Amino acid sequence: MTGGVFTLAAALVLDSRGRALLVRKEGTHAFMQPGGKIEPGETARDAIVRELAEELTLEVDPGSLTPLGRFSSAAANEPGWMVDCEVFTLVTDAPVAAAAEIAEVRWFDPTDTGDAEIAPLTVEHVFPAVPLVNVGGVGIDD
Question: Which domain holds residue 35?
């Protein structure tokens, strides 16, 4: 099958220092926001709460998630596919651990990801929004 659209929910997880948590799934090279497909009957918020628990062992109060926006971009690991993704923001210093299909968890400075391969959705839409996110009472670039 060639082409299609994945409907996803994802989280821009930031710590109190403004670093962004990205994950790399097993068998892939690109880092991206934690998240995944929205199951039938689930809201995007429900899906990201479930995905954060499954992928990072991170228990999240749904009320602590702030909507960032809904974005479309090329899928990072499936050539010819697109993602339609509702993204939420979460600021936390809670510990996380790679679980389920996650091979690697890494904190990144959104302005300098070094030579890491970063998913198109993250580069095109999510990281450009980071300066607008309130971390510890002020915007990151205040």
Answer: 4-139
Structure tokens at 25: 């799934």
- For residue 48, the domain's CATH number is 3.90.79.10
Q: How many domains does the chain have?
A: 1
pTM: 0.91
104 vs 3: CA distance, rounded Å: 27
Q: Tell me if 73 sits within 8 A of 121, measured CB to CB.
A: yes
Query: Looking at residue 136, what is its pLDDT?
Result: 62
Mean pLDDT of 81-102: 96
In this structure, are strands 81-91 and 4-14 parallel, antiparallel, or unpaired?
Answer: parallel
Band (pLDDT 50/70/90 cuts) for residue 132 is confident
